[in-house]
Amino acid sequence: MTVAAPTIADLETPALLLDEARMEANIARLRSRLDGLGVPLRPHLKTAKSVDVARLLMSGPAGPCAVSTLNEAEHFAAAGVRDILYAVGIAPAKLERVAALRAAGVDLTVILDSPEQAVAVADASRRHGQSIPALIEVDSDGHRAGVVPQDRAALVAIGRRLEEGGAKLRGVLTHAGGSYGCDTPSALEAMAEQERAAAVTAAGVLREAGLPCPVVSVGSTPTAHFARNFGGVTEVRAGVFVFFDLVMAGIGVCLPQDIALSVLATVIGHRLDKGWILVDAGWMALSRDRGTARQRVDQGYGVVCDLAGRPYPDLIVAEANQEHGVLSVRPGGTLPDLPIGARVRILPNHACATAAQHARYNLVAGTDPAVRAVWDRFGGW
User: Fold this and answer.
1) Residue ranges in the chain whose pLDDT is less than 70
2) C-alpha distances in angstroms, 230 versus 85, 137, 203?
3) How many CB atoms lie within 10 A of CB 183?
4) Which of 19, 48, 144, 358 is the most exposed place for a label (fewest CB within 10 A)?
């Protein structure tokens, strides 16, 4: 943790702001929901990339958590986290780092979806004299990787290569990435059930073959918030729920006022002949993510708010150059009077991508201009 500036007005821009009250409400909302459905949360820390945020998300100092890079795993392990899921398909060359973390006392689990990866994990297990645990990734929606749950032969073959080769089959995992394309409650509920059913079916295939499957892991932020039943599931993973963003608002998972992250920027110029206001936050501060372009409402590169976090009517970041953001209003809107030096807050399309552009969170609370704390975050692989 570094020393906080006294107020937002004292920050160099662009700067990443984190509304502590909104963040805490977002965390409490999902935890309460999952508690009511009787399933534990394994928070995905790929968005946070911060030990301070992780401590708020995990159920205890040792975890559990999920990560998307081994660099994340190493940072959180150094902070005392011991139950870590590396939730990206394992590359054989990374197994040395996996083994080193496990040798240091971290219960690190990998995921895979091919016999070749299973052989590599088994070989590394024998080489290091430890049984590296793995989850088989299941394709629940055709979104990305995984074994379809109907491919019994592939599931059993991967499981046996792990178990007979000296590794450990710990269970199955799926991620309903297709949920990001849903935008009605009924579609989100259906996707959540599809995700659950795929994982539970794959687990049944393994158990019927006499293979162990203690873990049945599902999760995405949309399905975690809309699932009605987690029967057969042992844990739910979610990550962006802690901050939310405009994509999640467009799906209907949250409201814009729930978004805890924003980028503080300063007005540096005007092109009134074009209806533009220029700010010092371009794609290097906001990212190039245009996830809302595929939704019913295109939010450009972000929604522009005043310093209290209230959106200006119809004002968005219409264009983003490397260090320049171009603000303009939608057709029919009126450009607000923002003089040179005025400051605005920009809500991001994709919290993960925007946060990745910054080295720290500046904590604020509601409309209070004070910077309460500064929390470091990290990047890299």
Assistant:
1) 1-5
2) 20, 18, 14
3) 14
4) 144
Rounded to whole angstroms, the Cα distance separating 95 from 93 reads 6
Q: Is 282 helix (H, G, I), strand (E, B) or coil?
A: coil
Distance CA 364, CA 12 (A): 15
Instruction: Give the separation between CA 84 and CA 284, rounded to whole angstroms.
Output: 30
Per the CB < 8 A criterion, the answer to whether 290 and 319 are in contact is no
Q: Does this chain's domain 45-238 share its CATH topology with 256-376?
A: no
Within 8 A by CB and 6+ apart from 210, the residues are none
Strand order in the sheet with 65-67: 41-43, 235-238, 215-218, 168-174, 133-138, 107-112, 83-89, 65-67
Cβ count within 10 A of residue 116:
12
Residue 1: its pLDDT value, please?
Answer: 57
- 66 forms bridges with which residues in the sheet? 44, 85
Kindly give, in sequence order, each residue whose CB lies less than 8 Å from that of residue 354, ignoring residues fewer than 6 positions away: 16, 245, 261, 263, 285, 286, 287, 289, 302, 348
- Looking at residue 5, its pLDDT comes to 66
pTM of this structure? 0.94
CA–centroid distance for 337 within its chain: 35
Give the three-class secondary structure for 20.
Answer: helix
**Cα gap 214→222, rounded to integer Å:** 25
Q: Regarding the domain delimited by 256-376, which CATH topology (the fold level of the hierarchy) does it fall under? A: Lyase, Ornithine Decarboxylase; Chain A, domain 1 (2.40.37)
Predicted local distance difference test score (pLDDT) of residue 366: 84
45-238 fold:
TIM Barrel (3.20.20)
The residue among 67, 47, 63, 41 whose CA lies nearest residue 224 is 41
* Spans of all domains in the chain: 45-238, 256-376
